[in-house]
Design a protein that fits this description.
The chain is mostly helical. Helix content is about 65%, strand content about 0%. The longest helix is centred in the C-terminal third of the chain and has 25 residues, at about 165-185. The chain is globular, with a radius of gyration of 17 Å.
Length: about 200
């Protein structure tokens, strides 16, 4: 059983560190990491703590090495933006817990798609709350959601640059890669039955 934990730890750590490589906006492994941990690690607090720590550490590394912030600058973590991201993570973790008893391809697909939508809605809602740039009503919230879409644009070509291709396809890519890699590593096949620990 311990070697399976090591496999999950290895896969999600490598996936987390891939955030330091050039990539389109929001084409990240964070949803896949959270879904995988929540789905496969039986001890609930470990299944929550592990992806949470990877999110925290890789966020700090990205801020330091990509955005040239000081190694001692932790201001991001006390922002409403960060709070929205971490609330999203907690909700995605709950979806991963649902996957524990629904481990099939269609459920993994549904979990990934719903996680993409949750991340987009929750993270942008936290940008909206109390922000004087937006009227604090339904129209202001819808405007904030619309303003969040350009953050999915980038210089990676035609197939990247929208919520669909960056957020949704990034989540599907990493979720499929992580779940598939784990299954092949443990079972030598793509069967996901009876592989939790």
């Amino acid at each position: 059983m311990k070697n399976k934990f090591f496999i999950v730890l290895t896969l999600i750590t490598v996936a987390g560190l891939s955030r330091l490589l050039p990539h389109p906006w929001n084409f990240t492994p964070l949803t896949g990491i959270t879904l995988m941990s929540a789905s496969f690690i039986i001890t609930r607090w470990k299944s929550f703590l592990l992806p949470f720590l990877i999110w925290l550490v890789t966020d700090h590394l990205v801020n330091t090495f990509i955005y040239n912030k000081s190694l001692l600058d932790f201001s991001y973590f006390i922002s409403t933006t960060a709070l929205g991201v971490y609330v999203s993570m907690a909700l995605i973790w709950l979806i991963g817990n649902w996957l524990r008893s629904n481990m099939k391809t269609s459920s993994i697909l549904a979990a990934s798609l719903s996680s993409s939508l949750i991340f987009y809605l929750v993270s942008n809602t936290f940008v909206f709350i109390g922000n004087s740039f937006y009227s604090q009503d339904l129209n202001g919230w819808l405007q904030c959601l619309a303003m969040g879409i350009p953050f999915y644009k980038n210089d990676f070509g035609l197939f990247f640059g929208s919520f669909f291709f960056n957020g949704v396809m990034g989540d599907l890519f990493y979720t499929s890669l992580l779940f598939g890699s784990y299954s092949i590593w443990v079972n030598k096949s793509l069967s996901l039955n009876k592989i939790r620990f």
